[in-house]
Fold this sequence. Notes:
The protein is of the alpha+beta class. The protein has helices spanning about 15-35, 50-55, 60, 85-90, 135-150, 165-175, 180-195, 200-210, 215-225, 235, 240-255, 320-325, 350-360, 375-385, 395-400, 420-425; strands at about 40, 45-50, 65-70, 75-80, 100-105, 110, 120-130, 160-165, 260, 275-280, 290-295, 310-315, 340-345, 365-370, 390-395, 405, 415. Helix content is about 40%, strand content about 20%. Strand 13 (about 340-345), helix 13 and strand 14 (about 365-370) form a beta-alpha-beta unit. Helix 8 crosses helix 9. The longest helix is centred in the N-terminal third of the chain and has 20 residues, at about 15-35. It is elongated and about 95 Å long. The relative contact order is 0.12. The mean pLDDT is about 85.
Amino acid sequence: xxxxxxxxxxxxxFYPEDxxxxxxxxxxxxxxxERFGYEEYDAPILESxxxxxxxxxxxxVNEQTYTFTDRGDRKVAIRPEMTPTVxxxxxxKRQELPYPLRWYSIPNLWRYERPxxxxxxEHWQLNVDVFGLKGLEAxxxxxxxxxxxxxxxxxxxxxxEIKLNSRQLMDDIFKDYxxxxxxxxxxxxxxxxxxxxxxxxxxxxTIQEITKSQPVYDSLIDLLHAKQVRDLPAELQxxxxxxxLEKLHKLxxxxxxxxxxxxxxxxxxxxxxTDIVFEVFDTHPDNNRSMFGGGRYDGLxxxxxxxxxxxxxFGMGDVTxxxxxxTHKLLPEIASETDLYVVLVGDVYEQAQPxxxxxxxxxxxxxxxxxxxxxxxxxxxxxxxxxxxxxFIGEQELADQKFTLKDLKTGQTxxxxxxxxxxxx
RNA sequence: GCGGGUGUAGCUCAUCUGGUUAGAGCGCCGGGUUGUGGUUCCGGAGGUAGUGGGUUCGAUCCCCAUCACUCGCCCCA
Length: 425
């Protein structure tokens, strides 16, 4: 039985052309978040299982986390998300860190689930967090960062929509406005979260079943029709979170983000969110899904026994981002890291070394064809690698110290000294 | 974890209700004479039909199992 060449289920091999694309995406993200003053951190892929048990939500720990017991009998998890880790890191140095803290990371994360479009078992996720800002300047900044990343990828604002809501608002609506109990609130939240995917009739019937009260049902249906903050009942207009949402919306509009909307059905899966949450949606019908999201989670750092630190963060997955860029045809051709393919003509491997050394010293990335095969084969190899520039080095060139540079795209050749060659590229 | 679909050459797919040596396009390799690719021409390699069972005189085709991929659900990025 031959060994399988397939990568592990739900995980990807990155061949050089795939890796080039990944590097392009990550470098673009890095460039943008660093422009906003965020600094990169990292951490181990393994964490103690307890880290996730506390606050991530039931499902992700019980069913979606890769776990094992190590030789020292410790329960270990492969990180399914980065937020608990970064909270742990901040808590560990709570007193000595300079706030506001702007941190980012691009970790690979593992979740045990059924792979499908936009969702694999291993993915990379840009995590951007700001620690130590109580005001909604934090939310504003992070949404600007998310938007700036998509702008850097040249995505028109019509291709995505930024949805805003508040977890606090929803909690208070359930508790004080609708006056339903905890279990009902939880069930309703889950249901509302998938309202757009549920059949309208089934949706309403399920609400009936959960609320068991006609007035509550009517009020809730009314709320769900709200398209903007102003549509909500006057009684709720006084709610702090709603005022904040309105302010945030104005701030974003003033920043040129014309594609932000209030969406009362936005819930977000993790239990640790405490107030404003947001998600960026792809508006394309073929890929209508949440690309990334985040929100405020003021309580997480305090779980480590230190004073709380107000925090806002978001995550952006590489798979969903790539789907988005592909769907909107925003992925450019990415050139190889190699600048120049060296065709050796005749038996000149040894004599060519000084010239090769000089070219490398001047910063060119060279791939030398040291096979000794015919020149046409060598050129074909360069072409197949997707390289555009080829230089010929043979007896003649070495004698004259003039080298023939060929552009495989235009077919033109030029005879150049090493100096000129370097300047040319 | 649950439900549906698919699985034939490296890739995309044929093989007409089970019937001789399973085909094509693209790709790949070699050649059109020795220092210039991409076009073109000629030639060639490559498949135990995902895997294992079963039904049948006979299975790529029907049945079962299993694995993989894929779509949806759950959940989420």
